Amino acid sequence: MNESYPARYQRQVTVGDQLFGGVYIADFVVDGIIVSAKWQQVAGTVEQKLLYDIASLIDIIKNGKGKYRKAYVVLGGVGFRPITKVFLLAQKHRNYLRDGELVEVVSLDDFIGRVNKQAL
């Protein structure tokens, strides 16, 4: 983000459609960047849905006519399996999803650090 102007920030924003229908509601949008927060307190099925979520975000960015330039999927909580976190935080989705570089997966701590440094 640029320090010369305040960030435009919105919560719970409909940013487009999911791949299989239905709207995609982002947790936040900041200056054309979509932020999707994924909190996993206990083991569950959210990690099985993350690649679908990332693919939907890629499609929304590509078809958004320049409205969005990037997306972050922010992982928090202790419920993610370690192998899942390693895969996602290493950006390995990019090996399987075309244009995967449009979506970056980061930990909650990393994301907060980037926000504090204004380095999104």
Describe this structure in a few short sentences:
By secondary structure, the protein is an alpha/beta fold.
Characterization of the model:
By secondary structure, the protein is α/β, with parallel strands linked by helices. The protein has one domain: 3-Layer(aba) Sandwich (Trna Endonuclease, Chain: A, domain 1), CATH 3.40.1350. The termini are close together. It is 28% helix and 30% strand. The protein has a five-stranded mixed sheet.
> Class, according to the CATH hierarchy?
Alpha Beta
Residue-averaged pLDDT, rounded? 90
Tally of structural domains: 1
Number of strand segments: 5
What does the main sheet amount to? 5 strands, mixed
CATH architecture: 3-Layer(aba) Sandwich
List the helices and strands and how they pair.
Blueprint: E1 9-17, E2 23-30, E3 33-39, H1 46-62, E4 70-76, H2 82-89, E5 103-107, H3 108-116
Parallel strand pairs: 3-4, 4-5
Antiparallel strand pairs: 1-2, 2-3
